[in-house]
């Protein structure tokens, strides 16, 4: 029991702490506490009653035989709590374990908020811990690589500028076999819809771009994609604690949409990118609301389907269950619309998991945890056991998950726990079932 | 003995209440100033409607997910807090003392009821202490402060009970009780009992954040 017995070797964390000593740690920790935190952190630290009501909320705790060191308040105690208690003076080894807890043992999913009688946001405490780790240069290697990519290219996957447009043209060409006059319009000024994606799509999930283009084309939407950086709406810097870069990424994204004078941004089926625009990045940039309207795919598909812009020739065979992505359901109240869309698309029932809607269990991949890469993979999938049990109990064969992260996480989960379930994006189903325009 | 009694029921009570009132104003004021200076991006979302929506829903027992999943604790904590606040305010012994010096009085609980409520508070404190010792997750979380506020909360009730029933030396017990009561009053702003002051605002904020940004309920 305890973080000491479960330390995972990661070169980013190891190299990071090797450069530190107690003095340098103390200086940085206190600079963050004094410079960047205020009443919120102070009140949370002071009034947490150590009552343990939040314990049962966390899938890390539930999935690890109720190991108390995984309870939300326990994670705060072992990180921010310890720093506060020691005036920021801790050893490099302690920073290593704190970083592991903050980056890989909390998905920032905020389920625990629903359990805390005094409204403490444990995710906020973990984010603050990550911020400190970022400033100390102690970040897991894989996710740091994506953050570097963001800094260098404004996208997460080192996609070069010409590769981006090449990929779009390639997908356009592919799709024209099926939809002869389909275009992926680049840099079209004044378009109704600016479609933005995450960098893994052009990198290795190109079929998602293909499908999106097919849907937008079929629905006769006036749309565009930007040819220049700003097209990637993802934001790993938000999760590493590199807030300066997070702010620049959001600015770039919105500026690219503003430059094209589009009416609104539609985002693909991604959770964290959505969080980064409606909650986190916008705040850092000083925007209470954001400058260009942003619509998540779930909402957008809901419009297309309820307004009859997309008609179906068949329905997807149910019953199905669904994964409520934290960042769009607990994070942005899209639970009802998501169910509406599924009811339109699926022939059969929606079998809910025990914890659903804003009370859902996280897929254990969110909050940048999956992006911490292979060293942390086994631990991550272990933490999804509670979710796997709930999925198995539904007894259905299909999970609908409108979020890339959930997909990645559930893929591993279905495999490891031998659930034998298929995981679908809404786009997969719409693409499969929609009425094609006659050529 | 009489001098001590006079002191603890006289000047010391003034001191405790002064600490409570000015201490609370100071704590709330400086916390607000800090929030204005450092948490502008949170304050910006504060919203009356969502604040009260969250406070209201969390006041209802077994409404929030957290209450539902901790049923025993929920019952205990409601009983504890209600008796903790109601007993001293509605206790005849207290009201008589106030009437003697101020000439004001209000409805009081029958002594037998107050006695039962006192026992309930003590029992709740015993339950909290038991959890801290036996329940693994709570045990891991517990710090000295938690024991401190538990003791501060329990002592006025234990000593009050003993005094009322004239167990042990009555005079000593009454003085001990009044001291314990004074300590509790003065400790509110400067120990974790400050949750009494701040919990409303942390709740209001998270309610506003869930209502305004997340468009989801937080209970
Ligand atoms: C009127 C405002 C108050 C509110 C809204 C409030 C709220 C709460 C809540 C939500 C909890 C956590 C649930 C639990 O563990 O029982 C709690 C715990 C506690 N409260 Fe209060 N409280 C208030 C006043 C007080 C006062 C005046 C005291 C006096 C000493 C007090 C003593 C405690 C103690 C000792 C606990 C911890 C119980 C444990 O050990 O788990 N509270 N309070
Ligand atoms: C600060 C000044 C206080 C004074 C002067 C005071 C005085 C007294 C007196 C004279 C009694 C009656 C003892 C008897 O029956 O002979 C009493 C009982 C009691 N007091 Fe206080 N008290 C104070 C504060 C408090 C506080 C802060 C609490 C609780 C939060 C409290 C809770 C009680 C209880 C529970 C009883 C006994 C009830 C019973 O078992 O019937 N008192 N107090
Ligand atoms: S993973 Fe979710 S439930 Fe667990 S501590 Fe983090 S935010 Fe809370
Ligand atoms: S439920 Fe809230 S107050 Fe209780 S231990 Fe968890 S974070 Fe602290």
The overall strand count of chain A is: 9
Which structural class should the secondary elements of chain B be placed in? mainly alpha
Integer-rounded radius of gyration of chain B: 20 Å
Number of domains of chain A: 3
What average pLDDT do the residues of chain A reach? 96
Largest interface: A-B, 50 and 53 residues
Q: Largest sheet of chain A, described in full?
A: 4 strands, parallel
Given the helix and strand composition of chain A, which structural class is it? mainly alpha
Number of strands of chain B: 0
Evaluate the radius of gyration of chain A: 22 Å
Counting DSSP H or I runs of 4 or more residues, the number of helices of chain A is: 20
Q: What portion of residues of chain A belong to β-strands?
A: 5-15%
Segments of chain B where pLDDT lies below 50 for 5+ residues?
A: none
**Sheet of most strands of chain B:** none
Shape of chain B: globular
Stretches of chain A where pLDDT is under 50 for at least 5 consecutive residues are: none
Average pLDDT level of chain B: 96
Number of helices of chain B: 12
Q: Whole-Å distance between the termini of chain A?
A: 63 Å
Order of helices and strands of chain A: HHHHHHHHHEHHEHHEHEHEEHEHHEHEH
Question: What is the rounded distance between the termini of chain B?
Answer: 52 Å
Summarize the topology.
The complex is a heterodimer of chains A (439) and B (219).
Chain A: H1 11-18, H2 22-36, H3 39-47, H4 59-63, H5 72-85, H6 92-104, H7 122-136, H8 141-153, H9 161-178, E1 193-196, H10 200-204, H11 206-218, E2 223-224, H12 237-240, H13 243-259, E3 264-267, H14 272-284, E4 294-296, H15 297-306, E5 316-317, E6 320-322, H16 335-345, E7 346-347, H17 377-382, H18 385-394, E8 398-400, H19 404-416, E9 422-424, H20 426-433
Parallel strand pairs in A: 1-2, 1-3, 3-4, 5-7, 6-8, 8-9
Helix pairs in contact in A: 1-6, 2-7, 5-6, 5-7, 6-7, 9-11, 11-20, 13-14, 15-16
Chain B: H1 2-9, H2 11-38, H3 40-43, H4 48-59, H5 65-69, H6 71-90, H7 92-102, H8 111-134, H9 136-141, H10 144-164, H11 170-187, H12 195-214
Helix pairs in contact in B: 1-11, 2-11, 4-12, 6-8, 8-10, 10-11
One iron/sulfur cluster is lined by residues 57-58, 60, 72, 75, 106-112, 122-123, 362 of chain A.
């Amino acid at each position: 029991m305890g973080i000491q017995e479960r330390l995972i070797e990661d070169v980013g964390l190891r190299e990071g702490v090797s450069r530190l000593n107690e003095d340098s740690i103390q200086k940085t920790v206190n600079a963050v506490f004094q410079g960047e935190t205020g009443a919120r952190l102070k009140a949370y630290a002071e009034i947490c009653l150590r009552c343990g009501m939040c314990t049962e909320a966390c899938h890390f705790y539930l999935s690890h035989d109720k190991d108390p060191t995984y309870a939300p308040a326990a994670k705060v105690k072992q990180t921010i709590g310890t720093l506060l208690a020691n005036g920021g003076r801790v050893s490099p080894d302690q920073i290593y374990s704190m970083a592991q807890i903050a980056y890989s043992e909390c998905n920032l999913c905020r389920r625990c908020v629903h359990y805390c009688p005094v409204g403490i946001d444990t995710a906020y405490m973990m984010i603050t811990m990550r911020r400190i780790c970022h400033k100390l240069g102690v970040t897991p290697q894989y996710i740091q690589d994506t953050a570097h990519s963001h800094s260098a290219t404004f996208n997460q996957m080192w996609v070069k500028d010409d590769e981006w447009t090449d990929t779009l043209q390639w997908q356009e060409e592919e799709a024209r076999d099926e939809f002869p006059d389909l275009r992926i319009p680049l840099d079209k000024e004044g378009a109704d819809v600016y479609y933005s994606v995450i960098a893994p799509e052009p990198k290795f999930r190109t079929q998602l771009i293909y499908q999106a283009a097919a849907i937008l084309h079929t629905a006769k939407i006036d749309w565009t994609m930007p040819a220049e950086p700003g097209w990637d709406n993802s934001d790993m810097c938000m999760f590493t604690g590199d807030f300066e870069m997070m702010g620049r990424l959001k600015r770039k994204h919105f500026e690219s949409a503003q430059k094209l004078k589009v009416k609104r941004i539609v985002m693909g089926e991604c959770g964290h990118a959505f969080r980064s625009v409606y909650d986190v990045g916008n705040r850092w940039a000083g925007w209470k609301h954001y400058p260009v309207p942003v619509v998540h795919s779930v909402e957008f598909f809901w419009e297309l389907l309820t307004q009859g812009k997309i008609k179906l020739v068949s329905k997807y065979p149910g019953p199905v269950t669904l994964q409520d992505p934290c960042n769009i359901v607990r994070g942005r109240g899209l639970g009802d619309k998501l169910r509406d869309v599924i009811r339109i698309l699926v022939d059969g029932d929606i079998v809910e998991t025990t914890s659903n809607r804003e009370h859902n269990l996280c897929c254990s991949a969110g909050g940048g945890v999956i992006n911490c890469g292979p060293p942390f993979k086994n631990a991550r999938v272990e933490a999804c056991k509670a979710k796997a049990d709930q999925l198995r109990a539904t007894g259905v064969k299909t999970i609908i998950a409108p979020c890339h992260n959930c997909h990645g996480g559930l893929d591993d989960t279905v495999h490891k726990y031998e659930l034998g379930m298929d995981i679908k994006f809404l786009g997969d189903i719409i693409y499969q079932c929609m009425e094609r325009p006659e050529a | 003995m009489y001098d001590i009694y006079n002191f603890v029921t006289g000047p010391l009570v003034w001191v405790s209440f002064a600490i409570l009132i000015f201490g609370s104003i100071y704590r709330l004021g400086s916390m607000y100033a800090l929030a204005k200076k450092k948490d502008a991006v949170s304050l910006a979302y504060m919203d009356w409607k969502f604040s009260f929506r969250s406070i209201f829903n969390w006041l209802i027992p077994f409404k929030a997910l957290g209450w539902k999943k901790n049923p025993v604790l929920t019952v205990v904590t409601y009983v504890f807090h209600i008796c903790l606040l109601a007993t001293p305010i509605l206790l005849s012994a207290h009201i008589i003392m106030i009437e003697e010096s101020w000439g004001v009085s209000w409805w009081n609980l029958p002594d037998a009821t107050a006695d039962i409520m006192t026992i309930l508070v003590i029992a709740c404190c015993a339950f909290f202490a038991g959890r801290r010792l036996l329940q693994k997750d709570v045990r891991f979380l517990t710090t000295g402060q938690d024991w401190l506020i538990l003791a501060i909360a329990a002592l006025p009730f234990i000593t009050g009970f003993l005094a009322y029933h004239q167990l042990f030396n009555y005079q000593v017990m009454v003085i001990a009780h009044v001291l314990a009561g004074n300590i509790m009053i003065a400790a509110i702003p400067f120990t974790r009992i400050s949750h009494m002051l701040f919990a409303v605002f942390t709740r209001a904020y998270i309610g506003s954040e869930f209502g305004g940004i997340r468009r989801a309920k937080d209970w």
